[in-house]
Amino acid sequence: MSVVWTFLGGKLVQEVTSITLVNNTEKLETASPGTGKRWLLLGVRMLNPDDVNRVLVIDKYKEAAKTNLVKRLVVATLGPAGAMQWPYGVPTETEKRSGTPPEILEAGNTLEFKWSAGGASTGGTDADGLVVEYLEIDL
Question: In whole angstroms, what is the distance from residue 96 CA to residue 98 CA?
Fold first, then answer.
């Protein structure tokens, strides 16, 4: 008996974003498929480049206005230079995770990546503080 693997098609995208955190200030980034696009989310990596603990969150919303929360993919408390990955790679015992692959996003769905305000700090920058990997499919 042989196994046949069918590739979903589409283009593999690995978006790398530089993240700069500022003293005691929340940081938000978003990502969303464009019109006529669908994403199969493969993975996300977030890093805390600050010198204090921060709570990092990945939320999936139904729309760009972020009114309707579909699900919280992960929330974790990370120390300085700590990293987390969705769906795998749990770095701490304080992580709470829901949603397992696949996560499919339609045009309008929005992913929000949040770094909470962490208290007095020096801030910090990481050239690849956020990496989002997905298959992009044209409809």
Answer: 7
Could you report the per-residue pLDDT of 8-55, keeping only the tens digit for each? 678 889 999 999 999 999 999 999 999 999 999 999 999 999 999 999
pTM: predicted TM-score of the whole model, two decimal places: 0.88
Token pair 């979903």: residue: 8
Query: Which of 41, 19, 14, 12 minimizes the C-alpha distance to 128?
Result: 19
Peptide bond into 87 cis (omega under 30): yes
Q: What are the strands, taking DSSP E only, across 1-139?
A: 11-21, 27-31, 37-47, 54-61, 69-78, 83-86, 96-97, 103-106, 110-115, 124-138
DSSP letter (8 states) at residue 94: T
**Domain definitions of the chain by residue range:** 28-138
List, as one string, the DSSP characters of 1-19: ---------SEEEEEEEEE
For 16, half-sphere exposure in the C-beta direction (CA atoms, 13 angstrom radius) is 3
